[in-house]
Amino acid sequence: MSHSADHHRAGSWQRAVWNGLRCRCPNCGEGRLFARYLEPVEHCPVCGEEYADRYQVGLLLPFLVITVVGHLMIFAVLEMGHFRVAPLLLLAIVIPIVLVLTLLLLPPVKGALTGILWYANLTDEPK
Fold it and tell me: Which sequence ranges are marked TM in the entry (predicted)?
């Protein structure tokens, strides 16, 4: 079920981003956006909006996640430096946190980017 550009602009972009952050359909906010970890569903089971390979976030997804995690970790490492934490202990603390934060942030950030692309009707389909 393909929708027109007017349909995408009927709601607010904030709602589309919020629904994406929750890994829900940007259109209805109820259907799941991902079938698996980062694989989008073919279409929303509730409203029928098509996703599959229509909205590709490309390299913006890792760029945003690395930027956020990097800034958080720089702050944490600088704060731990005040307590004279041993370098190996610092690595033992920081590396798992970086991995967990990265894996936790990828789906909601991809959902938010998908919501923005959905709202702006920016698909990879030829026009």
Answer: 59-78, 85-106
What is the CA 4 to chain-centroid distance, rounded?
A: 24
- Reading the block at residue 118, the tokens are 């959905």
* Domain residue spans of the chain: 5-120
Phi-psi region of 2 (alpha: psi -120 to 50; beta: other; left: phi over 0): beta
User: Which positions of the chain have pLDDT values less than 50?
Assistant: 1-7
What does the alpha-carbon distance between residue 68 and residue 73 come to, in Å, rounded to a whole number?
9
pTM: 0.86
How far is 64 from 101, CA to CA, in rounded Å? 13
In this prediction, residue 6 carries a pLDDT of: 45
Three-state DSSP string of the chain: CCCCHHHHCCCCHHHHHHHHHCCECCCCCCCECECCCCCECCECCCCCCECCCCCCCCCHHHHHHHHHHHHHHHHHHHHHHCCCCCHHHHHHHHHHHHHHHHHHHHHHHHHHHHHHHHHHCCCCCCC
